[in-house]
Amino acid sequence: MGLTTSLSPNLSPDAKPSSPLLSPLLNDPALIRTDDEEEVRRKRFPTNKAYFIAKEVSTTERTYLKDLEVITSWFQNAVSKDDSMPETLKNLIFSSFDPLYKFHTSFLKEIEQRLALWEEIGR
Prior knowledge:
The protein is mainly α and 123 residues long. It has four helices and no strands. Helix 3 packs antiparallel against helix 4 (87-121).
């Protein structure tokens, strides 16, 4: 049983493997991207790892803020109805939430502003 070119499409007529660079997909002018098209694509869809890390940080921060709001609201309501916790302890605990929430709110705003600038520059 001999090998024929019909059974092995990757072999050239002289039975040598053909180069992948000779693929019609790589040589068709309609399918080749120009440098300008590649630049537009890169700007529209940033591939920078730092950009994706920043996007992940903003998503995480937004989730954290929502969770902090829920915990703070629920916890404050539950504790304020319960007289078993001393007032000084309540004040100590709740006084920490407000600065924490304010910090993370401004941090998220700053991240979102920087991402907007990053995306604007990429356009």
